[in-house]
Write a structure and sequence with these properties.
258 residues, alpha+beta, Yope Regulator, Chain: A, Trna Endonuclease, Chain: A, domain 1, 2 domains, six-stranded antiparallel sheet, 8 helices
């Protein structure tokens, strides 16, 4: 099939704005009007391998997403489910980060339509609603703690059963096995930060020998006054989880080793 015919299929099935730009032997850059959230265009190549033609993003989609997300976050929780669903729905192959789709029965237009839809669905992880983001943050927090802290030394949703049977001062995670257990708070909002402040003040009044760590979803989004009060009572803070995963892991490992 000629390139002119393939391009015509693309126009009829997907968009009249699509163009094919040659990049060597049996290889064409597919120029489309479809964009990532930041305005960059999707990267798509039509190329021949052996006796078959296929569409490929040449690993650009995941690379682009990791500008704002930790690569590990693409493989866990809500984000991983969105990606897996998109790949399955549009029959796209993930070959070590390169997304590929074979062109079947010379149906180039249908293949491109499916490939673009799949890539756009994957980029939906950058459009998660606030509640979905919050859910992902908590999932990511739990995953990090489980990966870093031995199972017998971590308690999620901890509270003092003797002093606080009504669970008024719950903590996202407690790490034991040290002279002073470490309380770890996952903080996605002003309200959660206020609750953590109140809890730490109460533990202080009870004279409990504890240490504290806070991991924010986005510290810059927290009200200044709320953050200032919290900072007075919390020993260690990380402004985000996504951008500080390795630092948080190192800090926790140092604490556990003591």
């Amino acid at each position: 099939m000629s390139i002119e015919t393939i391009e015509r299929q693309f126009h009829e099935t997907v968009s009249a704005k699509i163009r094919l730009a040659p990049e060597g032997v049996s290889r064409y850059r597919v120029l489309t009007p479809f964009l990532f959230e930041d305005g960059d265009h999707l990267a798509i190549v039509l190329k021949q391998e052996g006796d078959r033609w296929l569409l490929s993003d040449e690993a650009h989609t995941y690379m682009h997403l990791t500008y704002d997300l930790d690569e590990k976050d693409l493989n866990r929780g809500t984000r991983q489910k969105i990606i897996a669903n998109a790949l399955s729905t549009f029959h796209i192959e993930d070959r070590e980060g390169e997304l590929r789709l074979d062109v079947a029965e010379d149906r180039y237009g249908d293949a491109l339509y499916s490939f673009i839809q799949g890539l756009l669905k994957i980029t939906d992880i950058t459009y998660l609603s606030r509640e979905r983001v919050r859910s992902t943050f908590i999932e990511d927090f739990h995953s990090l703690m489980r990966e870093t802290v031995p199972e017998d030394r971590v308690s999620f949703d901890w509270y003092d059963r003797e002093r606080d049977p009504q669970r008024m001062y719950a903590v996202d995670c407690l790490i034991n096995g040290m002279a002073r257990p470490l309380l770890v708070f996952a903080l996605p909002s002003d309200d959660k930060t206020r609750d953590a402040t109140i809890a730490l003040l109460q533990f202080e009044r009870w004279g409990m020998p504890l240490r504290s760590l806070a991991i924010f979803e986005d510290q810059e989004a927290v009200n200044r006054k709320v953050l200032a009060r919290f900072s007075d009572v919390c020993e260690k803070q990380f402004s985000t989880l996504t951008g500080n995963r390795e630092r948080i892991t190192r800090f926790l490992q140092e604490m556990i080793a003591r």
